[in-house]
Write a structure and sequence with these properties.
Distance between the termini: 38 Å
Keywords: Membrane, Transmembrane, Transmembrane helix
Pfam families: DUF805 (PF05656)
Strand order of the largest sheet: 1-2
Protein name: Inner membrane protein YhaI
Shape: elongated
InterPro entries: DUF805
Number of strands: 2
Radius of gyration: 21 Å
Biased composition (Polar residues): 142-151
Strand content: 5-15%
Number of helices: 4
Amino acid sequence: MDFQTSVRTCFQKYVTFSGRASRSEFWWFALFVWGGQLLLSIVDSFVFGTVTTYDGGFAAETNMPVLSGLFGLATLLPTISVAVRRLHDKDRSGWWYWIALIPLIGALVLLFWFVTEGTRGANTFGPDPLGNSPRDDDDGYATSSIPRAGH
């Protein structure tokens, strides 16, 4: 799946929490959201400037996240739904997304699940998004181009 198809698919499945999402669909959309947030944060700082706040005698400057905040709201549900569908590709319930609430360890576990290959063939949550179906004689090894002896 390419970048445009991934972004289009994630917005078409805005709040679809069923089915499966391939690694490429998840990571292309994550790149889109990250890049959009970065770009809009820069635009926010130029257009809306920064705000100086005084807390306990210390001055802190922060930018007004108007555009990046709206973008974050617009992409919140698609981001959660593609993450849940990615967990489904690993044959895990979407409720595992809550593991992210465990500091550091939860995020690392989710990251591991997001970067590893999903289950091949159909699983509890639907057909393989890549169209792979395991063969009966598939033992996890690549098929050799050398003919088998005796055949």
